[in-house]
Amino acid sequence: MRKICESELKVLTVLWENGRMKAADIARQLKEDVGWSKNTTYTVIDRCVKKQLISRMDPGYICAPAFSKRRASENSMRELLENYFDGSAVRFFLTFLNISGATRAEAKEMRRILKNRMERE
Question: Where are the alpha helices (DSSP H) in the chain?
Fold first, then answer.
């Protein structure tokens, strides 16, 4: 999967939330959400199509995401882990805890999740 820039992520997010949409409807949504012009939205859509992040079907200029939000999130996390933490989940987790401002309840929930994960292995 290719790297997704912030503007492409905005288009993908609209599609993940709404499913297949006409490009004109995406443009209306992004004008409302972030103030983009129709031309800006169409430029980003074209870039997404070229990068195979979305598919576009004619007639009607119908757009659909090429993959799920979960798959994109997992890919981004993998890249983050490799590029900034040398593949170390422990270093990633420690940094996350330091910057996240996680509440005590959230920390307990993370501990429970880790414990359950370890018991399955």
Answer: 6-18, 23-34, 38-50, 69-85, 89-100, 104-120
The CATH number covering residue 17 comes to: 1.10.10.10
Cβ–Cβ < 8 Å for 49, 42: no
Q: Domain range for residue 51?
A: 6-65
Residue 77 lies in a domain: no
In the numeric block, the tokens 């992040």 are attached to 53
The pLDDT tens digits of the residues spanning 17-40 come to 999 999 999 999 999 999 999 999
Joined tokens for residue 11: 């288009």
0.85 surpassed by pTM: no
DSSP bridge pairs for 55: 64
Provide φ and ψ at 35, rounded to 5°.
80, 20
Summarised one tens digit per residue, pLDDT across range 73-116 is 999 999 999 999 999 999 998 898 889 888 999 989 999 999 99
Cα separation values, 18 from 31, 85, 102, Å:
16, 34, 30
Domains held by the chain: number: 2
Residues 13 and 58 in one domain: yes
